[in-house]
Amino acid sequence: MRMKDIECSAWLLRKVLSFSLIALTFTLSRVAGENVTSPSPGTTRSGENFVDLANGVLCGMDTRQKKIVGGKNSVLGEYPFMVSLKMKHSLKHFCGGAIISENYILTAAHCVTNYLAPRLTVAVSELDLSGQSHDQSYEINPNRVIRHKYYDSRTYENDIALIRLRKPLTWSKSVQPICLSNNSEHYVPGRRAVVTGWGRTSETSRYTPSILQNVEVPVVTNDLCRVQLAEYLPIFSTQLCAGYPGGELDACQGDSGGPLVIKEGGRVYLVGIVSVGVGCARPLLPGVYTKISSYIDWITRNMS
């Protein structure tokens, strides 16, 4: 969620459950992987700084058949962990999320409530919201929503939630889980991360693309982020900031709850959840994300 100012911006209204991508340039490059048996859910594999919570596949693998560089749109299988949260009655997209196991979706707490759960549906294998790309997407209803009990709607602290699905996902080339990163090197300032979503393409435009978009943004230090956002928001150690000094590329309305990821060694790692920001792509105002490494214990505990 974003805000224009601390007093009256729609970004701070609870009814606004969205974000978007302002993409002047895009990076779409991944290496295809293979499905193999994963380790036990909720465990960190020896010697590797990530958590794989899924059964039946390795997390974070790219299942595309070809490599594309410099494109604007994502392609099917490039971000197979990406989901769209929709309202059942309208099938209208309002937030993003990430597949972390066959039974669970990770998203932002400000996107969902227990009251909202019966009205939600989760679209997987989704690439084109218009339904014209033959992406074989389908919806699964949630069984339960688990929001962090200390989520603060004023500051967006602990902006994280789990959605338990009514039935397990079936893995395919376009439906795959993502790894949860607890590798400190993935959070180093200057590290390039990718945020994905179907949200608005500018702060002032109501246009939302039907094809899943992605844009690369650099991680910035929390100390710098605190200074830059001091007038608007507190920044906690459990949050992560990313964005360019000149703005230009960012998340905006329509992408809340979606993933911020690091691509490394042919795999993709979840490092953040789109949470809050000031406007969209404004200079010296980076976006704020829920930091995944701070919540791995919470995630695994609430999945057990």
From TrEMBL:
GO terms for biological process: proteolysis. Keywords: Disulfide bond, Hydrolase, Protease, Serine protease, Signal. GO terms for molecular function: serine-type endopeptidase activity. Residues 68-304 form the Peptidase S1 domain. Residues 1-33 form the signal peptide. SUPFAM superfamilies: Trypsin-like serine proteases (SSF50494). The keyword Nucleotide-binding does not apply. Pfam families: Trypsin. This is Peptidase S1 domain-containing protein.
